[in-house]
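Hi everyone,

Forwarding the result from last night's run.
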Amino acid sequence: MSDHIREVLDSILEEDLDLAITDIARTSLLVEDLGLDSVGFAIGVVAIEERLGVQLSEREMSEAASVGDLEDLIRSKAGV
């Protein structure tokens, strides 16, 4: 069974944030490993809301240290 949230998150990271998906793991740190900055966080917040219907603040997203933390945050907000 495919995982819709993970697939969409991967798509956002790759397409909206222009990151190489082959370099991304659940343990990848958003700032240190992937180089996200405040603009990247803002783009991510908008893309997550548009594609998954989950509202996150930039603060919530920036408090997610890793890709896995962000995925877990989205799941908790989506009720999954």
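The chain is about 60% helix and 0% strand.

Cheers,
N.
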